[in-house]
Amino acid sequence: MASHLNPGRRLVISLMGTGNGAHVIAGLAGANPNYEVRLLTRRPEIFKSRQITVQRPGKMGGEDVTGTVDVVGTDPAEVLPGSDVVLWCGPVSATPAAFRTIAPTLEAMKNEEGRSAYVGTLFAQGCTHLLAKSILGDDTPYFALQNIPWLCTTIEPGRVARIVGNKHHIRVATSSNTSFTWTKKFLEPCINASTGFKGAELQNIPDFASIVLNPANQIIHPARMWGRFSDWDMETPFEPGTLGSLYGDFDEKSAEALVGLDEELQSIKSALLTACPELDLTSVIPLADRIVQQYGDQVADKTNMQTIMSTNQAYSMAQFPVVEVEGGVIPNNNHRVVLDDIPHGLIPLKDLALRLSLPSPWMDSMILWHQKFMKKSYMTVNGDLSGSDIGECTSVTVLGGEEIANVGFTNPPVTPTSNLI
């Protein structure tokens, strides 16, 4: 069927990763006759049916949507050629490896097809734009979503996923050779089903600094994990079912830490704008305001940070990540709430605080506790980012060198060029 963007053929979206987000987009985009959906995955066996149903209970739409996956494979050279958009849907910590996996195929596509597929990340943290530049090259059109469009979960791998909370708008940053207008037209039908409810609207942010300073997971998860487990000896197991929920039981200690982190983030924003007035950080608003704006009436009590976190319906299903051990369960230090949010969240923020000569006691406390929990070394007790594992981090100093403005830009603005537009 003809596409509204490319008359005469279906648009091709290739999804990398098979987590919750990939399941939802595969189901929603696969239900749209204008799109061909491909999956690049290490687990092709779970997608034998090639049908994915997305459940949208209650305010999320009420009707299930079922879409078809056209191609499933493990080899980028077999899955990606002909793609209009290649979208990474996996954890932030795995982004470098994912980009390296597809880089040779993308380069071959440029030579053979005479065009560049757009590459995007469903959720980005840290200096993802500098990472894309270093691995995929300056000429690869790149975009990054500031937040995932919905909270979602996989019910049956390869077959059923559920949207548990949708956002009203999602902001997108694009590289200088990327058309936001085209990205918006392409991507919105893939993240929003065509019937049942009004989904997220994609809005443009002029540069990537708002991604790095995003008041979201990178301060929420460290505050909550520290608030719940800072008194734990990091050895003694907990009885299963006694930890409470990640958000629903958000306590005063976690809320105090989160408020402190949010205030430090806003201080970094103010100082960064003084140092680099060309950056646009208007979307970096206080966390409580951001949650209420994005989730609206899904937040039952907007009184303060604790009530906002604990009464957000969209957050209600989330649980602490744990692993089973002899005698019970312990928090999982190999989960994205730490692997993403410390080296690709708090460390890039701490890097900016150091470059701007700003105190950040809450960030220091979170980083020191988490790196002990993770058995990593990013920051010294003196507050210097000179630990043995700092090279794993996507901070502006690690990836962008001495120029602090690289937190937002990689290249001077140019007119986007693509035969997709």
UniProtKB/TrEMBL annotation:
Signal peptide coordinates: none
What InterPro entries does this protein's entry cite? 6-PGluconate_DH-like_C_sf (IPR008927), 6PGD_dom2 (IPR013328), NAD(P)-bd_dom_sf (IPR036291), Opine/Lysopine_DH (IPR051729), Opine_DH (IPR003421)
Could you tell me the superkingdom of the organism this chain comes from? Eukaryota
Entry-linked SUPFAM superfamilies: 6-phosphogluconate dehydrogenase C-terminal domain-like (SSF48179), NAD(P)-binding Rossmann-fold domains (SSF51735)
Q: Which residues form the Opine dehydrogenase domain?
A: 206-374
Where, if anywhere, are coiled coils annotated?
A: none
Q: Enumerate the Pfam families for this protein.
A: Octopine_DH
Q: What GO MF terms are annotated? A: oxidoreductase activity
Q: Quote the protein name from its UniProt record.
A: Opine dehydrogenase domain-containing protein
- The organism encoding this protein is Triparma strigata
